[in-house]
Amino acid sequence: MNRPLVAIGASDPSAVLRGLEAALAGGPALLPVAEDAPALPAPPPSHVAQRVALVVETSGSTGTGKRVALSSDALLAGAASADAALGGPGRWVLALPTHYIAGLNVLTRSITAGTTPIVVPPGHFDGGAFADAVDRLDVGPGAPRRYTSLVPVQLARVLDDPRATAAATRFDAVLVGGQSTPAPLRQRALDAGVRVVTTYGASETSGGCVYDGTPFGTVRAELADGALELSGPMLAEGYLDDPERTARTFVERDGHRWYRTGDAATIDDDGRLRVLGRLDDVIVSGGEKVPLGAVERRVRELPGQDAAVVTRRASGEWGEVPVVVTERSIDLDTVRAHVAEALGRAARPAAVLVVDTLPMLASGKPDRRAVRALADPEGAPSP
User: Fold this and answer.
1) Among 242, 274, 306, residue at a domain's last position
2) Burial class for 1, CB neighbours closer than 10 Å (0-12, 13-18, 19+)
3) Is 348 found in the same domain as 298?
4) For the chain, what is the domain count?
5) What is the tens place of the pLDDT at every residue in 306-325?
6) Under the phi-then-psi rule, with left for phi > 0, alpha for psi from -120 to 50, and beta for the rest, what region is 338?
7) What is d(CA 120, CA 104) in angstroms, rounded to the nearest whole number?
């Protein structure tokens, strides 16, 4: 038995909210679409399996298009576990696009709490507009807590605006995810009195399911040859019209269904998870493996480099080398010394490229394909 799949423009968060309410109640499945995003090669189907309530379409930061199918059970399980981890349901400020899972999670959690989110106007994120939205947040007796969800670049803009920073301190939790949050940025927020919760997850896990390094609810995390796998009731059904990719990504083991994240990670004796970066984001430089994610985290520890991106460039001498792309100038020798201290000589960036504006996706993540094209115009893959 199938149900209709209805596409809705994500530029109208109210329409997406109504469509998601209907989908969770058993109505047509919802596909929020960004009107200005490039279309995936194949059009979406007109109908989906009865269990599917939401389809999240993403090209990803590296250009791998997919449509993730999520059930009502998965979405509601994720929302319930998140509420429990945060201390209860609440009222939300929506500052993220509603065609991305983090923005859709704000809507799902608002629906389950019986509240209506306050929407920051779509488009360029502005600290003043964020503060205005917080001023409109009226906490009711049924949902006494306040929440919002941001990506790191948005948090940085909040902290650059005194009024927005003061507004952020009024939340019981400010979820920050979508990419690694630089340690200095997190500390800066905590010093300002902002209760930051770093999140990790994906569309395939109904959004964030690891808070501050700890899987919430019944979520389980394990390593398979250094690769992170997650299990729990929030897992997606799979990918629409792509059974091969579904079979590669979702596997059965020990009586549980697991999602292969494609990320390298460590798990300490207390079960605390630390994500190291993408397994496929490793270069070989001078015969040594260099994880670009680790280099990027090290660079972002330096003053003013919270948003710096590390990419690869072809090298006739070394094979490939790391390159820092940033909006703020920094001395190359300083960067190389700081990186080498922790990661060794092979990990030292070969160059710092200063740009006026880093290419970004609508989700607030760096557009890594575009960044690589800036650093290595001849070697970057074509779109």
Assistant:
1) 274
2) exposed
3) yes
4) 2
5) 889 999 999 888 889 999 99
6) alpha
7) 14
